[in-house]
Amino acid sequence: MIFSFFLLLKKLISQTPLTTLLQVDATYKLTWNELPLLVFGSLDADRHFHPFAIALVSNDEDSICYKDLFNQLQLISTQENNRPFYINFIMADGAPGIRKAQKDLFPGAKRLMCWAHVIRKCREHRKLVPKDKWNQIDLDIHDLQLSFSDSLFQCGASLLMKKWSSDTLIKHFQEYFYDQWIIKLPLWREKYEGAGINIPSTNNGCESLNGKIKQQYTLRNKLHLSSFLPKIEQMLHDWSTNSLLNDFVTKPSISTTLELISIKWSNSIDKISILHWFDSWYIVPSSNSLIAPAVWLQMYQQQQ
């Protein structure tokens, strides 16, 4: 039997029209019967996480659970804001349940996975390669993550697999990476750095809030349900109060310090090397660039 308690306050759900990103993360070891607690929310333009709702569920692995919760979130958001919650991006872990629910309910949304999870799992398998080769492999994975288009990522992943396949000493890691991150969890291919403009590459904000729940509300104890429910009520009240003091920022705040740094940078860089692409987009070479911006742009356009 699958059950769920979906809990929120009006002030929290009123923030959903300000974003198209939904972040979901589960935390455990809060209750004596190990009921998972799901947190729903989103980062604003200043990288501050804003929770929308929480759900106490009996099972966080079944897609039926996530479908029900997503439907509830949409229904309540529509009722309170007079418009649906338009979701273009969903960031969560690689659980099959949430992946299937997203495909069924939000087929047009991009399914993102936390980059920190990917590299952490890869590093846990570093023993599959000789120590003197790991630094280069780690660098290769980071370079691939810096892709800024689907075609570029796919081309880079293909070239990386060919590169690793030529070295028999890293064959086992190459097989692990291909099986886990290219075949089984291809959704990572949608969380390279350029997968979404102004979209975070990690789920750290949501996960950090889960850590605060254990530290500040349960004191790292497993509570009986009768004791935990009042804690949930207190959490929602605190989050709602905090949202009154900290607005959901839709445009990045620019500090005076950052403005001064920008002025110094603009005065020191060779402006001739900057290529105007279109609109407000510019191609700026790195400090150790190997090719000119015009050549880079030509190579990029050929990949499209």
Describe the 3D structure.
The protein has about 300 residues and is of the alpha/beta class. It folds into 3 domains: about 5-115 and about 200-245; about 115-190; about 260-304, no CATH class. Helix content is about 50%, strand content about 15%. It is built from 11 helices and 8 strands. The strands form 2 sheets. Strands 1-4-3-2-5-6 form a 6-stranded mixed beta sheet, with helices on both faces. Strand 3 and strand 4 form a beta hairpin. Helix 2 (about 65-80) crosses helix 3 and helix 6 (about 150-165) packs antiparallel against helix 7. The longest helix has 21 residues, at about 225-245.
Q: What is the gist of this entry?
A:
The protein has 304 residues and is α/β, with parallel strands linked by helices.
